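The protein record quoted in full:

***
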Amino acid sequence: MSKKRMITMMMAALLSVSLAACGQSSPGPKSAEQPQEGGKAPTEGEAKQIYTVTAIDYRYGDPPPSSSPGLTMINERFNVKYEPTFVPNTAFDEKINATFASGKIPDMIGLMTADVKNRYNKFAKQGAFLDIEPYIQEYPTLKLVPDFIWDAVRVDGKIYAIPQYAPKYQVVTVIRKDWLDKLGLEVPTNYEQLKEVAIAFTNNDPDGNGKKDTYGLAIGQDINPNFNQGPYWDPDAWYHQDEAGNYIPGMIGNGRKEFITMLSELYKAGAMTKDYAILNWADTNKEFYSGKAGIFIGTPRGMSQEYMDGLLAIHPDAQFVSLGPFKDAYGNQGLTSGAGFNGITLLSAKLASEPEKQKRILAMIDFGRTFYPEDSRNESNADFDWWSGKIGVGYEMKDGVPVNKENFASDGLAPSTYFVDNTAWAPQDFDNDYSITYQTKQLSDLVESIEAMYKEIKLYANPITGLESATDNAKGAELKKYVMDEQVKMIAGTRPVSEWDQLVQEYLSKGGADIIAEYNAGITEKDPKALFK
């Protein structure tokens, strides 16, 4: 998904579901209150004041340089000395822990969505961050954020985080259509058919090269992707209910059991990635984009043009089809809605005593989040041109679409690379047309079909969004890992799927029962069907 992290490495951005999802950053910001050149103009009293602005954030791949044209442009436009620290995502957890432990909190901090329920809550309660709510109505991009998203980041009734935009799209299952056609197979509409397709892709030579060198599902460590075709099978959706009517996590629901059972059968048949338990996300992508596997995932925002070009160099006639939601055991059909944000931006509480510096930073953030309509994403829009590093330097126009230069991120050619939040907040998800941002027809067509599907289907609102569980904060990550590891064993056959009910009891006894009780205490809607919109 998004995020700006993906600017620095488009391949890693491919879909990090956790998928983290992420995608290439959307074109950046412009508000009616900002001049075409120079950002929000400082007042006369502060015009000569240059503020040092510190930040810490994460990036997928190599961080951008600490001295570059993009940084210089930011300093000149906003009259600051901007000193961001970017940390590779794999080392960010350790770095941010050390930062908080030191007590020297930067002016701006970017955190992943996974940090909202633990690190953010913990330090917000300790008074580490600035209360954002008093400023929401002063900045156009903050006013665009729906109330339900602000409510999702409240701590003790206050808002200390600025949500970073992400559409409600999740990832969807994608299949090699040319392989389906070669074998005379229909597009699957349930998991039994999906299993049959995966086995056929393994045994029936779908690429026609006379070798048994293909297989079904590309999947990696942490059972990622989870290939859920609706909240019934989504491990993160609270959709199933126990005998008392309490919602329970999908990780221990009947849909998950069905999915794990299918994977165990595919594993025995050699129809899924053999070394899935240890394969990282980049290598999992390669299983699909090297032409080995025929089933993977896609999403409107965040697909890797480079990966697709690599696959088409091997299989130039490759075609793709995405799967719609399956009808579940309750007769419902839809997908889980994304939370509507992906990551948060925090400001240090010390800025409360530095109001002019605070204004300068909020102006930077607002600029970094403003949405440009498609017809404004070109050099005729001075703000967009500046944001993108200037035409001919940071980007060029191809068929009416801005395309970053090859060394865009590595050389820090554009300001957009350096903003903690550089994802434009679209007024509506459908204001984005992600399909036109890709250069390859097959990829553009696939994304267009996914976007069209999302306009037609219902989305399930996860009932625990915006709620907090003290036990989940304390034990949730460890408990989820335990359940995941046991399910990995079930797929490989080292623990029988027949012990599913026992695993559920293990989850409950290790703290899961408290997590369920605490979340359900805050849930008002008791009918899952009513949460499909």
Q: What stands out?
A: The CA atoms of residues 152 and 465 lie 6 Å apart. The mean pLDDT is 89. The two ends are 23 Å apart (CA to CA). The longest strand covers residues 51-59.
